[in-house]
Design a protein that fits this description.
The complex is a heterodimer of chains A (479) and B (301). Chain A has 479 residues and is α/β, with parallel strands linked by helices. Chain A folds into two domains: 257 residues, Aldehyde Dehydrogenase, Chain A, domain 1, CATH 3.40.605.10; 180 residues, Aldehyde Dehydrogenase, Chain A, domain 2 (3-Layer(aba) Sandwich). Chain A is built from 14 helices and 20 strands. Chain A has a seven-stranded mixed sheet with strand order 14-15-16-13-12-17-18, with helices on both faces. A six-stranded mixed sheet of chain A has the order 9-8-7-10-11-19, sandwiched between helices. In chain A, α1 crosses α7, α2 runs antiparallel to α4 and α3 packs across α4. The longest helix of chain A has 22 residues. In chain B, 51% of the residues are buried. Chain B contains ten helices and ten strands. Chain B has 301 residues and is of the alpha/beta class. Chain B has one domain: 3-Layer(aba) Sandwich (Aldehyde Dehydrogenase, Chain A, domain 1), CATH 3.40.605.10. In chain B, α1 crosses α8 and α3 crosses α4. The chains are: A alpha/beta (479), B alpha/beta (301). At the A-B interface, α8, β18 and β19 of A face β4, α9 and β10 of B. β18 of chain A pairs parallel with β10 of chain B. Chain B: This is Aldehyde dehydrogenase family protein. Chain B: InterPro entries: Ald_DH/histidinol_DH, Ald_DH_N, Aldehyde_DH_dom. Chain B: Keywords: Oxidoreductase. Chain B: It comes from Knoellia remsis.
Chain lengths: 479, 301
Amino acid sequence: MPKFEYAPAPESTSVVDLETSYGLFINGEFVDGHGESFKSISPSSEEVLAEVSEATDADVDAAVKAARTAYTRVWSRMSGADRGKYLYRIARILQERAREFAVLESLDNGKPIKESRDVDIPLAAAHFFYNAGWADKLEYASLGANPRPHGVVGQVIPWNFPLLMLSWKIAPALATGNTVVLKPAETTPLTALLFAEVCQQADLPPGVVNIVTGAGATGQAIVDHPGIDKLAFTGSTGVGKMIARSIAGTRKKATLELGGKAANIVFDDAPIDQAVEGIVNGIFFNQGHVCCAGSRLLVQESVADEVTRRLKRRIGTLRVGDPLDKNTDIGAINSRAQLDRIIALTEAGESEGAERWDNGCELPSSGFWFRPTVFTGVTQTHRIAQEEIFGPVLSVLTFRTPQEAVAKANNTPYGLSAGIWTEKGSRILWMADQLKAGVVWANTFNKFDPTSPFGGYKESGYGREGGRHGLEPYVRTGA
Amino acid sequence: MARLDVKKTYKLYIGGKFPRSESGRSYEVYAAAKGKAQKGTFLANAAQGSRKDARDAVVAARAALPGWAGATAYNRGQVLYRVAEVMESRRPQLVQEVRDAEGLTAAAANSVVSQAIDRWVWYAGWSDKFVQVLGGLNPVAGPYFNISAAEPTGVVAVLAPQESSLLGLVSVIAPVIVSGNTCVVVTSAERPLPAITLAECLATSDVPGGVVNIITGRAAEIAPWLASHRDVNAIDLSGAAGADGVDWGALEEASADNLKRVLRPAGTGTAAVEPDWTDTPDLSRLQAFLETKTVWHPKGR
């Protein structure tokens, strides 16, 4: 039979109009920062996309002051209905400019266009649309007596879902009446800066949303600023702990969405083909740069060989390459640093005795890439079974009984998500009860929705984002 | 000739048993001073809990967790209600101990005991309701069944209030255990005796051993080990207010090692104040020690 190759199907970049350099978005305007500038590159080509300012302590201070003024003079006095209308406007503009955002996200982050186009950007708009409706209904949200905003919220977001994480943070904060100083990740600042333009187009009052770019020092300046009432952070558990220490003994509140090492548990009665799709989606979605990625496959011993065989065959068909090609399944690793971490952990996997396999596909000559990789023969103590790799690397372990699956799944300091694959309903519900994880996907994986709370147990952080629960961290209640 | 009464030895409450401190130490507990007296009358030698006692208590609390968290909500509600019943039957003793500890009049102490009993009743009623009130179906945009429900966070360390020896104590324990958490409680240092009598009520109320563990002694000595303990999931710092030598900020910082959920003491800035426990409670203390779990499943024919 002839083999039909895919022809290239690149999405045009003409929809994106990038400046050569960007300032900080403070008090409704782009202003020059006082720090050095740094370059945001495309991880698939290593080409410079734009220069971006590193916000200094003084810049962060200016942003916090702008947010405070906007809070006291405008946003906290505005009716909930009007706040909601601004959020609806933002949701609509995101929908109108969706393709532009999707292309820019894939350029800056390296994720496949089919994901930025079909997941990141539509969900980002949906979060604004969902939270918009809450703005004048907070009294009905079972948040406690007299729900009211904290004031100025500092938000620090990661590089894996840049615009989507921005929307998870900004939409509920604004709906509840807070104003915001947000720092996007240093490797993916561009959609946040484009979002600043959306705020301008929506005539959002100046200072309600402030975007400061930079790296760890800028984030620390936000965390430490005395004018910040509440923090929301998504990122590594290590940084999350530093933030928790930084605010200890103060009255600053925090929501922390941190790392994970999710178990995706496949029982012998599972629909194997569906499970294989779920396993692939669980670990290779977004190059595995997902805190809730199903990075540990726990498969029942009696079907382990069959599942592994079918899984490898399926992984053999995954297309790794140009993020802007509409047929691409796996894009570029976000940065050199992240690629180095993935390489180091996979080398540890080999040296500790696990068996390594990848699909052997060709990789582009420039940019940061990693083949979809599977380790079999993994044991509980291996680093690749314990540490978050945050890349397209799956560790396969086996179990015999449901109790053993639960014990292995919970044997981690993390507790963000888990997957269960079985046709037996009572077993799904029993397993879901036992698993120490904030999100449990049964016979599916990596599903997200603005109405659905997301967040972890244990060292995966605290607080929930999304849904009614996602409003709670943004309000004070009581007398 | 008057009969010589039999005095009680006040010990710790760990894993459903009443051991002495492993450290072998005890300390003198006096009644609240009256009038011009520098010191009240001698009441008892309370066990002075240690780091090892705290660790033993954490082990007991962890062991009790699956059974208690896995009990039906109806069952937990009945057990908490039973605590109120048993306290009612011990009212004269509790009133006397609260009078001694807090220097209250008989009428005031009676009122405090009444409120403490009623607080168990209030929280008992929440056991099979808070999950409904705080969770439910999420209308996701797709063919999925999606539901969020609250669960207990696990083992909770509790610094009990220093001033309010019974009402405050009940007000911090009940919201922790009603949802299925288990706890290790460090009592008021100066006023520990009502806590041990409460332990006797718990032990005779079908509260499984290990669900509530009570350590008398000094929070400044014991709390740092609980704050840094890797097998403790959350910590309530309410009792830091007025606790000699306790820096709640340092305890919160130590709690970050495994990202414990921290309930800060009332107050503003670095100051910690003990709240008025006679205020009607709300759900905030209960919610502080919950996790939300969201489960997805596809729909299809």
